[in-house]
């Protein structure tokens, strides 16, 4: 039996697909390079925003023809959307055979072998998938889950309901996995968790884990995602002192209004957030700071929105992920009146995007003429090679003989906005 996995969503979803692939291969199934040659197609889903779920439903409608072409094929939905909707999804999509939440992947090989379908597997038993080797595609970058689930219950967020409560992997297991990635010549590893700052396995906290991973042999180490309420000075000091830890911090602010942050149940103020940013910039030379911004939250006034714009102007983020609010069934905010009209949400989102693009351009323009260390990751879409700086900025590099996995010194010659352009190159 051959399987194919399509992934929608964040880095955690991508890593989950690698874990699921490892489980299926371990059970004797073979990966396919395309859905056309597969007996089983699994769509790994995100449920954080309504738009993500609509994309999945559209894809499932297109896969109906794939099922009709060869009777006996199996179509499944896994991940957060499967956990949220369960049997409802099987009812809404008649040609769907199974749904499986993020904690039930261990059961899939047996289900596929028995073909006891349709079935909904949405148990939450605190799974960490210890001992499961992810099937990675190779290359220079890899993701390592250090924890799963979340205890924050931000009022707009579905994650604690679909991924369960927070639990941390043993630090020795995490370090051993990163050491193995170093032996396999991976050059850039990202530690993943819904809130990495709250990592604790009973012996080691997140700052301690960072210092241990720093000695694991990977040249570059990153982490996602940080919650401002738990980001400690010890973590920032570890970033400043450990050579492998990259000078990049993704720190979601969501809103520049304390009133809205309180409605969101974010547990910090704008003043506290800015204090963290200033502390990070004081400790870590040339750090880049990126963020998440959510506009149109229930009750957000024009004054609240203006405060968000003020914070963006003040902090000067290197870049941002920007979204408009959509209610997630089952969350606290879904019970609030969705009182910001859709047209107004779109206007505010457009204004935030335009402002942040201007700032990103100015921030990157200041790098023109400087030298940066770039890790080559892949061929560029047109000429040259695509790489990434330690501060997580993409760079198109033009030079002779460049290979994936090379570290090169690049003189920045220009910018397209989010992407830097590199000229002369030389091995360090």
Briefly say what this structure is.
By secondary structure, this protein is α/β, with parallel strands linked by helices. About 35% of the residues lie in helices and about 20% in strands.
Overall 3D shape? globular
Structure classification: alpha/beta
What's the architecture of the largest domain, going by CATH?
Alpha-Beta Horseshoe
Would you identify the regions where 5 or more consecutive residues have pLDDT less than 50?
A: none
Let me know the CATH homologous superfamily of the largest domain: tm_1862 like domain
CATH domain class name of the largest domain:
Alpha Beta
Q: Give the averaged pLDDT, no decimals.
A: 95
| SS summary, helix count | 13
Biggest sheet descriptor? 6 strands, parallel
**CATH fold-level assignment of the largest domain:** pyruvate-formate lyase- activating enzyme
- Relative strand content: 15-25%
Q: What is the total tally of β strands?
A: 19
Radius of gyration: 22 Å
């Amino acid at each position: 039996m051959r399987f194919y996995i399509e992934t929608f969503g964040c880095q955690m979803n991508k890593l989950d697909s690698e874990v699921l692939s490892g489980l299926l291969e371990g059970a004797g199934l073979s990966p396919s390079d395309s859905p056309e040659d597969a007996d089983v197609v699994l769509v790994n889903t995100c449920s954080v925003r309504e738009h993500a779920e609509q994309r999945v439903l559209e894809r499932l409608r297109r896969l109906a023809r794939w099922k009709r072409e060869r009777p006996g094929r199996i179509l499944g939905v896994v991940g957060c959307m499967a956990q949220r909707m369960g049997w409802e999804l099987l009812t809404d999509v008649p040609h769907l055979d199974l749904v499986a939440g993020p904690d039930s992947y261990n059961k899939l090989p047996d289900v596929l072998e028995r073909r006891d379908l349709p079935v909904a597997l949405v148990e939450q038993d605190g799974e960490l998938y210890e001992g499961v080797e992810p099937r990675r595609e190779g290359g220079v970058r890899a993701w390592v889950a250090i924890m799963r689930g979340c205890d924050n219950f931000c009022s707009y967020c579905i994650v604690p309901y679909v991924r369960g409560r927070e639990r941390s992997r043993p630090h020795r297991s995490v370090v051993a996995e990163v050491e193995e990635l170093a032996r396999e010549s991976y050059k850039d590893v990202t530690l993943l968790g819904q809130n990495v700052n709250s990592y604790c396995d009973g012996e080691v906290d997140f700052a301690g884990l960072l210092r241990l991973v720093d000695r694991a042999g990977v040249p570059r180490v990153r982490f996602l995602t940080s919650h401002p309420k738990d980001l400690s000075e010890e973590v920032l000091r570890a970033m400043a002192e450990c050579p492998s830890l990259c000078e990049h911090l993704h720190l979601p602010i969501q809103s520049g209004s304390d009133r809205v942050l309180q409605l969101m149940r974010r547990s910090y103020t704008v003043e506290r957030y800015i204090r963290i940013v200033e502390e990070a910039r004081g400790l870590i030379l040339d750090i880049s700071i990126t963020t998440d911004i959510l506009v149109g939250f229930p009750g957000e006034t024009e004054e609240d929105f203006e405060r968000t714009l003020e914070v963006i102007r003040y902090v000067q983020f290197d870049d941002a992920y920007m979204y408009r609010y959509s209610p997630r069934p089952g969350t606290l905010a879904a019970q609030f009146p969705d009182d910001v009209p859709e047209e107004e949400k779109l206007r505010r989102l457009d204004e935030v995007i335009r402002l942040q693009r201007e700032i990103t351009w100015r921030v990157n323009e200041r790098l023109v003429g400087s030298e940066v260390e770039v890790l080559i990751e892949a061929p560029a879409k047109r000429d040259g090679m695509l790489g990434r700086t330690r501060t997580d900025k993409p760079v198109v590099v033009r030079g002779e003989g460049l290979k994936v996995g090379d570290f090169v010194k690049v003189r920045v010659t220009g910018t397209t906005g989010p992407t830097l352009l590199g000229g002369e190159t030389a091995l360090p």
